Amino acid sequence: MTFSGFPVAALDFYDDLELDNTKAFWDAHRETYDTAVAAPMKALVAALAPEFGLAKIFRPYRDVRFAKDKTPYKTHQGAFAPGGPATGWYVQIGAAGLRVGAGFYEASAGRLASIREAMVDERRGGELEAILAGMQSRGWELGGDRLKTSPRGYDAGHPRIELLRFKSITVGKDYGFEDVIHTPEVLDRIRADWRESAPLVEWVLAYARP
């Protein structure tokens, strides 16, 4: 299947699922999910694979074993192309439209320590600051989990203390309901976005020790 955009039916499906997140609704509309959501996502990641590797398409089911919210289905469909451990590129379609992202979403204690070691270094930390500042100036949103206080062992007055508080770093960009998401052109947009965010991914992979 050639990727030709996400149909309006994909957004309508998730709008309705948010209102009726039940197995009965899912079973009655499974064909819409398969044709309007799953098939275009498979075609999209296949088209991006030659440059970024084949992305993992996440299951549509929520893990509710330890959750207070017992609704069974996710209200978006995501796919993640790993560049390394918990680091890479992301794309998502859901009730809120289309979103792309990149970065690292978790790190072991040792891996996070090596990332912070690079952040403290004048050259390497300065590189990361420049990458993130440049992306934010071009419309990317900076996100990730952050400590409310300074990490242990680091001076609260360090010039890059705001970076050092991050336990994960992501950047994201929303297309929302723009008409382009329903056309083949959005493939080129996503490819360009992932290329633009590649310096962040490469920085993490260069300095995060396993």
Q: What does this molecule look like?
A:
There is one protein chain. The protein is 46% helix and 18% strand. By secondary structure, the protein is of the alpha+beta class. It has one domain (8-207): BirA Bifunctional Protein, domain 2. Strands 1-2-3-4-6-5 form a 6-stranded antiparallel beta sheet. Helix 1 packs across helix 3 and helix 5 packs antiparallel against helix 7 (185-207). The radius of gyration is 19 Å and the shape is globular. The mean pLDDT is 96.
CATH fold descriptor: BirA Bifunctional Protein, domain 2
Taking all Cα atoms into account, the compactness measure Rg is 19 Å
Instruction: Tell me the name of the CATH class.
Output: Alpha Beta
Give the overall shape.
Answer: globular
Could you tell me the mean pLDDT?
96
Secondary-structure element string: HHHEEEEHHEHEH
Biggest β-sheet description:
6 strands, antiparallel
